[in-house]
Sequence to fold (365 residues):
Amino acid sequence: MKNLLAPQTLQFARTPNEGAKSDVERDAILADPGFGKHFTDHMVDICWSALGGWHRPRVQPYGPLSLDPAAAVLHYGQEIFEGLKAYRHADGSIWSFRPEANAARMQRSARRLALPELPTEFFIDSLKELIAADGSWVPSAADTSLYLRPFMFAKEAFLGVRPAEKVNYYVIASPAGAYFKGGLAPVSIWLSANYSRAGKGGTGAAKTGGNYAASLVAQAEAYEHGCDQVLFLDSVEERFLEELGGMNIVLVKKDGTLLTPESPSILEGITRDSILQLAEDRGHTVERRQVTIDEWREGAASGDIVEAFACGTAAVVAPIGTLKSADFEITHDSTETALSLRSELTDIQYGRGEDRHGWMMRLDA
Ligand SMILES: Cc1ncc(COP(=O)(O)O)c(C=O)c1O
Fold:
């Protein structure tokens, strides 16, 4: 749904949070942020209507939303979101990583979910506005960041099944430490045999809540089997690798080739794209193609596939030590390629390494 009425710039109204956390309270949270548990003092809120386009942009105190019980999102799940991080560099400045790519992905998700497309400049402005209010929430300890969560949903109170004519876009933020409890220790993955995450022609390539809702029962099965994450196969032939519940997957061959699934029903990760670019810069061959579970299994057994890792904004890169399924197991000892690419990427994100692709964008200036 294109929005032709959007103004060129948005003037944000700012309402400070009178009950904002004190410096002492905030510092206590930032000392041990966990992941997704604590939220900053403010949030961005922009309205959209079919008649008026994007309007009423504001930064306001973080707090509960008021929703009509008939709001379409509560019934038909018309919702999309994004996830990216703000990083504090050694000189105190605050940066984000490829935010235009998140803006573009949110526009693709919006098209699939029949939601309005938020122009890239509004997306970037919304992040800068939130950082202007809550920049003190960006932690500075090693490997910490402020996770930014833009999201948009159908707010119109209407029970007919059609694209909503009233939508709101928000950004909230949450200080973040390590995503997995074990830090950089290899994670274990459960191969889902009973459930698919996405189907042909479905919403798998969009970042929409329903995909995650559909993955939860499989994720619970993974926990029951002592695994950290779940791996989904394609829903048609049930043999091609797709992705994990919240991360993409990459396999590494003995000759250094990186292999990653290409599929119209997976979320195109910005971390994966960046890691593969860094690998290509180093001279690795990268193959983006269909990969079967048998190819991985046989490659691991013959020694042709030596390593596997998962990647996504939250955990960055996580080496995979084990893939478990009901009737076989794949194990990898090596974590070398994953950890070396991870440190090259995080060096760029935290301003320690050269940003030769122009991926970083300053948010606090
Ligand atoms: C299902 C899924 N796949 C892949 C990714 C990785 O995407 P990105 O690297 O852009 O965070 C995510 C989000 O982190 C995800 O939720």
